[in-house]
Design brief:
It is a single chain. With about 700 residues, the chain is of the alpha+beta class. Among the domains are: about 1-90, no CATH class; about 210-310, Calcium-transporting ATPase, cytoplasmic transduction domain A, CATH 2.70.150.10; about 390-420 and about 530-640, HAD superfamily/HAD-like (Rossmann fold), CATH 3.40.50.1000; about 420-525, Calcium-transporting ATPase, cytoplasmic domain N, CATH 3.40.1110. Strand 1 (about 5) and strand 2 (about 10-15) form a beta hairpin. It is elongated, with a radius of gyration of 32 Å.
Length: about 700
């Protein structure tokens, strides 16, 4: 057994640094030199010198902040069961052979330029050029070449096999410059893609802010501050005003308003009283609450949201890169054809082996996929670059592809379609009472309140009369005197409790009673963003077949907003897990657009998750694309740009394959000399690259 060390949480660990999480750990002897863990969860690790972590983030050429070599700590908030994986769970094959030092690529590029110049001005022998360019190829791509050879032996035709065939075939035919150029350009593309992947799966630590570090639990008549994991079912916790709720439970004492914006996105705080359920992650209003715990920490709403993000990322799987899918079909076909051309004709006495070998090598050179290996990744990166200039940050090529194929756009309401700021949407009045008078009466009672509803009403009322004897009943309403008249302002239930008849009064946010009679009611709703309606219309013109709005708000609020912006399909009263489930049940390529912490699970579950604006760190980190300007109008522009970019990429593929197919058919017949084969390779590569560069000139329409 290894030596035990005691950490600050009071638990003993084997060969570990101090752990500050304060929770139970079940570590096994397979750990190797771990650092501190601050994840706040129980972990059961089974490490066997892993390269990847099941939380959806790998170690290969990434700095995700979740799991690092030497295990510096995991902050993802989930239980991990690691085994001997060579790749990461984010769905990508990151195995590129031995990783070379960072200086290798720039050194190879400098040597390439130097050798290119010298071979054109000095009579350098061919063998010296071959050695020099071979050294450059090894500097730039030895890792890819080794990985390509390994995968070729396993008959796993990845893009590395495709690149390796291109380089080796070109080099063997004496095209040293081309072989070295392909190796360098491919390395640059791989590094650029690695950076994009690293940024696309950053840590989601911001989400843990919805779970408080401590809970106030009542034990033996005393209020103790403990870790939420230490609270058991049916214990009583106390939640002071403006504190975040640590655990799910039922109110046993007190009344208040709960802000569930972090969970449901609902803009209006929810009125709660004894017997009502409260969810972890919500923020208590201005009144103290006593709550009986109904879910332990790992089963609480906030924890389940965090787990859902991990699960959704894994379910999304790996949308394989276009070049990888192509390589698995193209490479084996070309290799088999070349071998058949070199071997079969001599067997049937149709010519000398040297003649057919020459034709087979010509086929390999002509079919060399340099144009595709270079132009396809270049097309994706150019597309990502041009969309970023137009206010849309896309985190990877597969998301550009998903945007181009968008069939359904699912929109969160609060903060996405709307501003998230309350405003008066309608005022109902009793007969003979003016709307202006109702707003002034409500504002007089709400004048001293800092509640968002109070602010919206006072802003709409303008000049506010001064009320007297203002008494706020926490979580219910306000009683006041105005020029000798009794004024009641609050929810319908509050007025009913005070013997005010609500017959004929429509459902509203705030009702107003004067001297025992309901004289008016004010309905507040989220304010629609000025450009939302135009964006919805533009999405339809961009080829999107279905537009759906999902919200945690009530049915009436959702209907009002949907009608204002022209959305015909919406669903209301949804929690994050409900939204994720709704998205997963939809057909076609789904793009979800949201802005809040509560949207993170759905952003992760969609084919492409788009965050609006740069406000919510958690949403931005979980999303696959970001509308940096905060305007929905950026989405239809991004979809149209993505379609144009993918159109160029698809044209390049068809053009290159058509040329190469013609050469492959004509070469065995002896119609294609070596120089024409080289042109079919180098010429097509130049044309496709030039065509790809047009993407950089694209502008949003």
């Amino acid at each position: 057994m290894s030596e035990k060390k005691t950490c600050t949480c009071g638990h003993e660990h084997h060969e570990h640094e101090a752990c500050t999480c304060g929770h139970e750990h079940k570590h096994h002897e397979h750990h190797r030199e771990h650092g501190a863990c601050a994840c706040e969860h129980e972990h059961e690790h089974h490490h066997h010198d892993h390269d990847g972590c099941g939380c959806g983030h790998g170690r290969h050429e990434h700095d995700h902040g979740h799991h690092h070599h030497e295990h510096e700590g995991c902050s993802c908030g989930h239980e991990h069961h690691h085994h001997d994986h060579g790749g990461c769970a984010c769905g990508h094959d990151h195995s590129h052979g031995p990783e070379l030092p960072a200086w290798c690529l720039p050194t190879a590029a400098v040597l390439f330029v130097l050798c290119l110049v010298l071979t054109h001005i000095l009579p350098i022998p061919t063998w010296i050029s071959a050695v020099a360019f071979a050294a450059i190829i090894l500097l730039a791509g030895v890792g890819v070449l080794i990985d390509g050879a390994k995968n070729l032996l396993k008959l796993n035709f990845t893009e590395n096999v495709l690149m390796s065939v291109a380089v080796v075939a070109a080099f063997c035919m004496g095209e040293f410059v081309e072989a070295a150029a392909v190796a360098i350009l491919f390395n640059i593309g791989e590094r650029a893609e690695g950076i994009a992947e690293m940024r696309s799966r950053r840590s989601i630590e911001a989400l843990t802010e919805m779970r408080p570090d401590t809970a106030r639990v009542l034990r033996h008549g005393e209020e103790l501050s403990v870790a939420p994991t230490a609270v058991e079912l049916d214990e009583t916790i106390v939640i002071n005003p403006f504190e975040r709720i640590p655990l799910d439970g039922v109110i046993i004492e007190g009344s208040s308003y709960i802000d569930n914006a972090a969970l449901t996105g609902e803009s209006v705080p929810v009125e709660v009283t004894v017997g009502d359920t409260v969810l972890s992650g919500g923020v208590n209003g201005s009144s103290k609450l006593a709550v009986r715990v109904t879910s332990v920490f790992e089963d609480s709403t906030a924890s389940r949201i965090l787990r859902m993000i991990e699960d959704s990322s894994l379910r999304k799987g790996s949308a394989e890169k276009l070049i990888t899918r192509f390589a698995r079909v193209y490479t084996p076909i070309v290799l088999v054809l070349a071998v058949l051309v070199a071997v079969l004709p001599p067997i049937f006495k149709l010519g000398a082996f040297s003649t057919w070998l020459y034709r087979a090598l010509t086929m390999l050179v002509a079919s060399c996929p340099c144009a595709l290996v270079i132009s396809i990744p270049l097309g994706f990166f150019a597309g990502i670059g041009v969309t970023s200039k137009n206010g849309v940050l896309i985190k990877g090529g597969k998301y550009l592809e998903a945007l181009a194929k968008t069939e359904a756009v699912i929109l969160d309401k609060t903060g996405t379609v709307t501003t998230g700021t309350l405003s008066v949407s309608s005022v109902w009045t009793a007969e003979g009472v003016a709307e202006e008078d109702i707003l002034k009466l409500a504002a007089a009672a709400e004048a001293r309140s800092v509640h968002p509803i109070a602010k919206a009403i006072t802003d709409a009322a303008g000049e506010v009369p001064e009320a007297e004897e203002i008494e706020e009943i926490a979580g219910r309403g306000i009683r006041a005197k105005l020029k000798g008249n009794e004024l009641l302002v609050g929810r319908e239930s509050f007025l009913t409790e005070n013997n005010v008849s609500m017959s004929g009064v429509p459902q509203s946010t705030v009702a107003v009673a004067l001297n025992g009679r309901c004289v008016g009611a004010v309905t507040l709703s989220d304010t629609v963003k000025p450009d939302s309606a135009a964006a919805i219309g533009s999405l339809g013109k961009s080829g999107v077949k279905r537009i759906v709005m999902l919200t945690g708000d009530n049915e009436q609020a959702a209907k009002t907003i949907a009608e204002q912006v022209g959305i015909t399909e919406y669903r209301a009263g949804l929690l994050p897990q409900d939204k994720a489930e709704a998205v997963e049940k939809m057909d076609g390529v789904r793009v979800f657009v949201g802005d809040g912490v509560n949207d993170a699970p759905v952003l992760a579950a969609a084919d492409c998750g788009v965050a609006v604006g740069l406000g919510s760190e958690a949403a931005i980190e979980t999303a696959d694309a970001v509308l940096s300007g905060g305007s929905l109008l950026g989405l239809p522009r991004a979809i149209r740009l993505a379609k144009r970019c993918m159109g160029v990429i698809h044209f390049n593929i068809i053009f290159a394959l058509a040329i190469k197919a013609a050469v492959l058919i004509c070469t065995p017949m002896g119609f294609v000399p070596m120089w024409m084969g080289v042109f079919a390779d180098v010429g097509v590569m130049a044309l496709t690259v030039l065509n790809t560069m047009r993407i950089l000139k694209f502008k949003a329409k």
